[in-house]
Amino acid sequence: MTEKKKITVNLRIWRQGQKEKSGQFVNYSIGNISPDSSFLEMLDLLNEDLIKKGELPIEFDSDCREGICGTCGLVIDGVAHSKQKAIATCQLHMRRYKDGDTITVEPFRARAFPLVKDLVADKSRLDKIIAKGGYVSANVGSAVDANALPIPKEKADLSMDAAACIGCGACVAACPNASASLFVSAKVSQYALLPQGKPEAFRRALDMVAQMDSEGFGNCSNHGECEAVCPKEISISNIARMRREFIKAVLHGQPKVAAAGAG
Amino acid sequence: MKLDAKIPGGALETKWQSYKSGIKLVNPSNKRKYNLLIVGTGLAGASAAASLGELGYNIKIFCIQDTPRRAHSIAAQGGINAAKNYMNDGDSIWRLYHDTIKGGDFRAREANTYRLAELSTNIIDQCVAQGVPFARDYGGLLANRSFGGAQVSRTFYARGQTGQQLLLGAYGSMMRQVNAGTVQSFPRREMLDLVVIDGRARGIICRNLISGEIESYSGDAVLLCTGGYAPVYYLSTNAVNCNAGAIWRCYKRGALFANPCFTQIHPTCIPQEGEHQSKLTLMSESLRNDGRVWVPKKAGDTRRADQIPEDERDYFLERKYPSFGNLVPRDIASRNAKEVCDEGRGVGSTKKAVYLDFRDSIKRLGKQVIADRYGNLFDMYQNLTGENPYEVPMRIYPAPHYTMGGLWVDYNLMSTIPGLHVLGEANFSDHGANRLGASALMQGLADGYFIIPYTIGAYLVGSPLPKVNTDHAAFKEARDGVQKQIDRLLSIKGSKTVRELHMQLGEIMIEKVGMSRSAAGLKETLQEIPKLREEFWRNANVPGSGSDLNKNLEMAARLADFLELGELIARDALQREESCGGHFREEHQTEEGEALRDDEKFTFVAAWEYQVPDKPPVMHKEELVFDRVKPSQRSYK
After folding, report:
1. How is domain B480-598 classified at the architecture level of CATH?
2. Where do the domains of chain A lie, and which CATH numbers do they carry?
3. Taking CB atoms and an 8 Å limit, are B68 and A37 in contact across chains?
4. Is 0.80 topped by the overall pTM?
């Protein structure tokens, strides 16, 4: 097997100290990059160079590096998770680039994702939305037999399509309104489609949407950018389903008392 | 030290039920007075936090990620076992227990393994009730598949994302408790020490990974749910932040570390491509159902795969194991791949890979059938390697991905430090020397949902737990120790990066303490690791400061722990003069190259006790007793 040709790329990377109010792009160049390496591995190597030169490495988040944990997230040449479809940042490979390319790298930016440092944004407000209803209130020990309640395969599959969301926040970063609607609707849909989720469906839709608003995420105005960047290709039709759930809940009136055991 | 596993009496099948019925309870109104600290929010930690929160305990959870939903359980692909027998194919709790204890090569604790099999059915019920979207058939009932060579179909799955769905189910239940006020979440915190007061675990010291602050938390018990230690090999299928810090620092506070040499190296991973690589990616082992494993007969053959004629190919698994062929168990497949590569017959640019070839299956079944079966895996492979596996054979190589060893726990999941409980992959008890596919998820959730809620109560009511706060001298001592280590790491300013040193450790570990181990190699390792450790503390370059986000500092502290743990793994592998499961000692094999156990001498758990620095640890034994199975030799010829 022949040795693959190594490439050199130029990078414009957002640098911002943790205590700084604003940052700036800094230019870097890195050579000897294998086309087989991932984009994040290229950044690892750049950091190795920086450390050797006595400079501070570039902070960026990543964990599983196989597109399932949702930790990573960079805006690459203006697109969340890069222009390649249906991948998380960690799944981007350097064979997509040519020798001499210039690549611009920024953090996810949104009012609800305050910047921590360099390319690291704080996405923890998504947790606060989940806490308001991203679950079925089934205490441990109370479950009936798993097969007691058949669920049509089509429904189960649709529910799984929505449940595939990895919570990476790319939908927020891509949305002109910085809305978390795709994220919230994926969770609302997963449970709206299953009988287990029905008892709390109204409250879930109302509470999660309200929390999204109060965390500083914007509203959905059907741009569709979220769906375009979603690494799991979560469909925007989930947002339509969330709206139906929301409207149904409003028409039925908000429950005055929370169900027993729920917060 | 006498190790008491506290296994209840009575018949194996009724131990847990009768023990549970007799266990002491905490008065409901007293539960909120107990503060429990849970470290790690994977399946074990999240399920424990959810169930204990529901019971009314006051819980604090800690994780290194930006949100608890990202713990590495999320990456598990295959599925979760449960002895439901929905397929009517003869499955039972007994059979799942028997498969697990045999798969572990008779080095697991029988009572724990039986309890695990027993609880497996409750787990599926609970997860379905939570709205986990498991795969279903057209009748609307749950689908099952056979996995990892099991003779029954007992594996439940949610596409290739079972771990993700189970974790998000547990995480959701936990977040419900956050909303209810019973659970408080502390993300981006790394536990760096355990605080022991009057012989009991009473608190933890964490570094706030954003602010750099050293924080103290006190409680009535500590639950470690921090996963395994596969990144001791540097390259593994684990997430890049997985680490052994919490369990290692508890070991240094007196918790015994059991069977550290029981590590699992998975045969079907995408091979390393070069020095740039930061992790390895697992490919489901189901691929071996239709792929044929081969290498060229001739060493140093650089021809492309399609230019190597049939009679110059060596289908080595089919040749050596005619009846099991490509489906031999993980440990055998891994060792044989290493062997042919060591002979210079490996393929690809690094020569550390073997082919997994679908040519014949595509010819026999058609491309569409193969695409239906493995399409998503083929796509994943192509995205990673840039090669189309429908046209050129896949290249695979074994990679570390799970560790069966961990902190020693008794039947109550409590370590040798009273109050310190250890759940999930972080403990050692259920999988023996080899874990079967689809068992890790099962164990994490059994520990968290169904075992700890009972056993922790008994500990709390049965123990004197005077109020302590973080002003206590023991907290100050631990905080000072943590701060001192951080200052020391930042002051070295040597010439090697943390990554370079970690890669060096990984090379030693995979070469000599990996798939195949010899006394000579292990003795060399016991010389080399201390030298590398010395170099680390003299010559590492940890940039930046301790007062803000500094991932290199985090990695350095984790490497410091791995540099000690690696040595313990080698020491344990050296004392275990037998081969069992993932632990293969070259000196101990049958004529056919099978693992050769020595039941007479080694039917025990090796539990290591830390001594002061530079003094070798002391090994204690927990003898394993098998009441209901008779250990037998595995054969796959």
Report:
1. Up-down Bundle (1.20)
2. 7-120 (3.10.20.30), 124-252 (1.10.1060.10)
3. no
4. yes
